């Protein structure tokens, strides 16, 4: 039985889709069989980020309404044979699917796949309820902004009410320079409010924008990027490995620490 | 600064003067004199009780206390009470106790709801009694209680104590940083700067405004 993981946030634009795409590719790179489900019916994006837009024939709504089998709607990724995408319908809205149908679909897919990642729409309405219906685990994406953290807090409460306990947090778009100047919430500030486990921190990185526009997730496209490395670490943590967190504070580099130890640096 | 040896507290029966446990009697008398000189006019001819805490006064000491009050103010000394008076007031028969009621200042009873988790944004608790949270109350969560609200954690959300008009209700938290505080019909919002003391605080109504005090000074612990 595979694991069904929902990627959610409450607030829009914090990087749910990018995270789902990168984690999907990352898990596939490690040899896992992965299905990505775009639950954002009416505002689909995951196909674009994956560069698979032109291959869509059937979608999620076609599957639940019985016009095709799930196998026919799953699009095989162009680079990784064990990565599949179930796209959302663009011409319908969230009410086209019920939580029960999503649950049945996730159960069906979990028999064949190691991981099913559900890209949740923003908001707390029907789309959110659909996306979490079949999930056994939740990843919450937030950015270091008060509004995003507030929404993440709301989502954690709703997940608890749905008995989807112990969600894990991804802090996206962190800018260490701004944190250092005191202009951005730091990781501890966020964890103090949300009080859930941290599974990864992704630095703000323009290479994410470049890779997203090219339809190739940064985790595979740009192997040297800090953001790609951060995603790879999250993938390993998702699989249960314990991976140390990257310290983005440049002053704590090995060289600087050595200098400090020898009494040379400030 | 050391804490004053005596503390004045207004009650519906009049004024109660609490003597700090551990302070010696000379200090209490001299502190009482200075405080009465400063504030005797304010208290006018109110009835006054002196609560001496756990100490036992000799009859001479009691006389001295009564003399100081009559010489330095126009207040009438109604009683000198001790800690055991206070405690027997609580255990006293509730049906027959208007005298005991007068001694029960500082005690509140009622239904209460205990919540052993953190309240998150959007979660809302309404309860016709006291609410006690073992956890945090996050921003945009709310607690509305007819009685008091106690948070063993950080209170960052909205709290409304005494919602049906009880102006003696209060809100206390280990870290009191609410977005907005309401007690009965009085509203206040948090100050715009956000420096938080490390000690527990307590919000209550005094002279139609919500006041915040440290729990330790409020209760003399």
Molecular structure report:
The complex is a heterodimer of chains A (266) and B (221). Helix content of chain A is 42%, strand content 16%. Chain A has 13 helices and eight strands. An eight-stranded mixed sheet of chain A has the order 3-4-2-5-1-6-7-8, sandwiched between helices. Chain A is globular. Chain B is an alpha/beta fold. Chain B folds into two domains: 6-103, Alpha-Beta Plaits (2-Layer Sandwich), CATH 3.30.70; 112-219, Pectate Lyase C-like (3 Solenoid). Helix content of chain B is 24%, strand content 35%. Chain B has helices at 25-43, 59-72, 83-91, 98-103, 215-219, and strands at 6-11, 14-19, 47-51, 76-81, 112-115, 124-127, 130-134, 142-145, 149-155, 158-161, 171-176, 180-183, 186-189, 201-206, 209-214. In chain B, a hairpin with a 2-residue loop joins strand 14 and strand 15. Chain B is elongated, with a radius of gyration of 20 Å. Chain B starts with 5 loop residues before the first strand and ends with a helix. The A-B interface holds A 150-151, 153-154, 156-158, 160, 193, 195 and B 118-123, 136, 138-140, 156.
Brief overview:
The complex is a heterodimer of chains A (266) and B (221). Chain A is an alpha/beta fold.
* Architecture per CATH nomenclature, i.e. the level-2 architecture of the largest domain in chain B: 3 Solenoid
* Head-to-tail CA distance between termini of chain B: 16 Å
Q: Compute the number of strand runs of chain B.
A: 15
> Which structural class do you get from the secondary structure elements of chain A?
alpha/beta
Query: Going across the major beta sheet of chain A, what is the strand order?
Result: 3-4-2-5-1-6-7-8
So what's the oligomer here?
A: heterodimer
| Major sheet summary line of chain B | 6 strands, mixed
Distance between the termini of chain A: 54 Å
Strand content of chain A: 15-25%
Shape field of chain B: elongated
> What about the largest sheet of chain A?
8 strands, mixed
Q: CATH class of the largest domain in chain B, anyone? A: Mainly Beta
State the low-pLDDT regions of chain B, or none. 91-97
Main sheet: strand order of chain B: 5-7-9-11-14-15
